[in-house]
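Protein modeling request. Please complete all fields; requests missing the sequence field cannot be processed.
Requester role: graduate student
Desired output: 3D structure, token encoding
Chains: 1
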Amino acid sequence: MSDRKKEPKIYGTNIDFNSYNLRPAGSYLDDLKRLKDELTVTLTGFGSTVKPEEKKREEKTAPKQNAAKPAGPGELKSSMDEAKRAADELLREMEETSSAALSPSAPKTEAEKSPEKPDLDKLLEELDGLVGLEEIKKNVRSLINLAKVRKLREEHGLPTPAMSLHLVFMGNPGTGKTTVARLIAKLYYAIGVLSKGQLVEVDRSGLVAGFVGQTAIKTDEAIKKAIGGVLFIDEAYSLAANTGENDFGREAIETVLKGMEDNRKDLVVIVAGYQDLMERFISSNPGLESRFNRYFVFEDYNGEELYKIFLSMCEQNKYTLTVEAQEYAKKLFGDLYEGRGPNFGNARDVRNIFENVVGIHADRVAADTQIDERDLTAVLREDIEKAAEM
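Delivered output (390 residues):
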């Protein structure tokens, strides 16, 4: 067993911009936020909101040093406040410039100039229009910045250091992983990184066969469909779960790794699943660890975001909530989030409630002998109440 200390995983885009002699502002946002948090913690005892138990834990674990006499409380607080203000100001400036490479006035790749390609700005608007996922949106923009600049360097005959565009999506079901993967496929296509931009979604059943020799064939077929686009493997951790003597999940993994290497210029693979299980999955195979070094963590939607998703579904299907229905729905989704358990489905749960509302609304309206257009679109509080009980 090797004594080499395992490097900790860094969640986010984890991009090495130094290879390009570039300083893309967006890549440093996470570091600045951590710095800001550290400064806040340092202010413990000078008006900060750090919990007492956290303060005790820090005091217990902090190394003792024979340092010079520290500055007084007032002087220390003034210095920390000044540093914190400076960090906040720099953070704001970087957030304003992080999307500069994606602005309409930025240089365009040859692919972007083609009328046959999807419009990059419209795709970014679609990304920004997603409910919640603020950190994910920021990370996707930074990733597209990197891919675009790399493509521009390639088109200008400049060196383009090897890099991996493969991703690990970690989070609970219904947090938008497939939606974001589909957008990334289109974004890569828009800037010319991929030749087609399609998303091929599979899970274990789409890669693993039940007999010797068939798994490699089945996995190869999925890879061929995805060439030019993104192969999205949901619940990828199940491939590494040894379910018995005739488990061929690891054969599928090896076949995918070979396909990634053989088609590295025109294939992106995104693996997705629960956070803890995905960490173990990537660690289970050195080949996976070397090819997947960017991790996107999808947080659960909060109550307000769940409510916005529900409203969006209603608006898309021309349903309008009464005032009483809106008030009840807000409370319903707030309670749903606060009481969530291990099987919390996020947007999937919202969709289930919406579909139940549609059915209950149809039963109510069909029983009315006199209906108008308002009746066909209006959702009442009682509709949502009944839907939530199903």
